Please model this.
Amino acid sequence: MLILTRDEIEPLIDWTLAAEAVRAAYIAVSEGRVSLPPVGHITFPAGADCHIKYGHIADDPVFVIKVATGFPANARFGLPTGNGLSLVLSAQTGAVEAMLHDEMMLTDIRTGLGGAIASRAIARSDSRRILIVGTGVQARRQVQAHSALFGGDVVFTLWGRKTEMALAVVDELAQVAEISLADDLETACAQAEIIVTATGATKALIASRWVQPGTHITAVGADAPGKRELETALINRADRLFCDLLAQSLDHGEFEGVHRARLPNGGNITELGDVLRDPARGRKTDDEITIADLTGLAAQDIAIARVVLQAHESLRT
Amino acid sequence: MLILTRDEIEPLIDWTLAAEAVRAAYIAVSEGRVSLPPVGHITFPAGADCHIKYGHIADDPVFVIKVATGFPANARFGLPTGNGLSLVLSAQTGAVEAMLHDEMMLTDIRTGLGGAIASRAIARSDSRRILIVGTGVQARRQVQAHSALFGGDVVFTLWGRKTEMALAVVDELAQVAEISLADDLETACAQAEIIVTATGATKALIASRWVQPGTHITAVGADAPGKRELETALINRADRLFCDLLAQSLDHGEFEGVHRARLPNGGNITELGDVLRDPARGRKTDDEITIADLTGLAAQDIAIARVVLQAHESLRT
Model:
């Protein structure tokens, strides 16, 4: 069994190749070529939990089981709140071929890439002002991924509930992107063309009235029942809703409320893979409000694991 | 992260300690102290599949995720059909503490122990003649586990669909148990006081009319929807039914048919942990036919993983 640690994995990741692989994974899901059983989930005290995502792309020689833990209380002890690993198993013999002990890094990167892929596919093509909401690892990864996919001419603002943390993230990212602190979330929302929410919020952060026509919102924070970043009125007002996987989004994503309340928009949600296959299924006009809710798919975990393994293989030969 | 291979794990297992740990795990389940989310399952061509069992015993410092693959076609290439590993994670920080790459051995052993614990708890206390049905790894483990728990005065017969394979298993086990070949399954069933079925059968192997009053049957083969070892008439005739976990047994165990057909016995199934806590909930008279269906619990995987880690720890200190 090949075992790679986080430090060994990090230099193996090419963001461009990884973005292509994640994009192809969404399309494979849309084409019905991915076996994606329901996500495993177990909870612990103090809001901690563990997700198990696993799946198999038809005819692939391997399948992947990804374990990701989230223990918010770790922050108090200066420990990372996310952890985990991916197992790569042979789909021909069931043997475990590799363990990528990435400690959540691959999940963070593929989630970042998923967000940027959604923003790129659905936002107005002339969008340049991106607001990032959140100060955690995922907020940083969203800046990295949007930078990588949009190129150098985008401008970021970043807002966090704790200003000093937001400022620290802005300082840290100033080397890789044009980024500044957003003092006020309402104003920042009104000025943004793309809003990316990457928080662990359980109550809506973004009010509908703050958002201008034409804005695209990518929401990546809500990944478990009860987590919410957007006001229900905003979801209901949006012209088009998108998600990575309908079943997950309605069960434990941002659109959970839409499902529960059976709002009119509940029947109007397009999967990202369908938009990537057929752009006509995305945004129709410049003044539409669009929302993409991403809960994370095993298909992305398979994609990023393959990028790592292929890079490792090519180094060896 | 501690990583142990199969060869490193094998000498760490004390069957007596492991049996105690597995027994305690059933009781913990019965007491409602174990978080046991639904088993993850993904299928592959040619009847291959992967199960993911995971759970947490309340207040335990760790939790366990067990991955087990079954690829029947491996046998054609001389490869083991079962494979897998257990991950041990901190329930306090979510960090991965250990990987037990046991290649299915721990699952096989804890399943053997579960079968013997059920037989011991539910069969007539004077039972001495044990019929093992099956020639695979699990048939061997059932002989080992029943020998360990019943002591030296039990006598085994073993039946397999392929006589030459059955003979090979009997020869192999002759060193560890008093065991002989059963030529005819009907006769062997009639003579047995305990019948242990450990096959991958998808059609009933054991007919109701072959089984004498007072017989106990432990069925460990059926572990996925569609697998069956016992005739529905036999399940319906049994005086008492037992299982490890009701939800699993009705979903993908031997009692699936009871559930589907809503036979009278469907409402009369006791969990093993309840019998271990209170023997009055087990067999009532010597002439009852009893059936225990075991589908396998993450609680057993937690128990056996702890036995391995504790043995490893005590060797180091």
Observations:
- The CA atoms of residues 15 and 303 of chain A lie 12 Å apart.
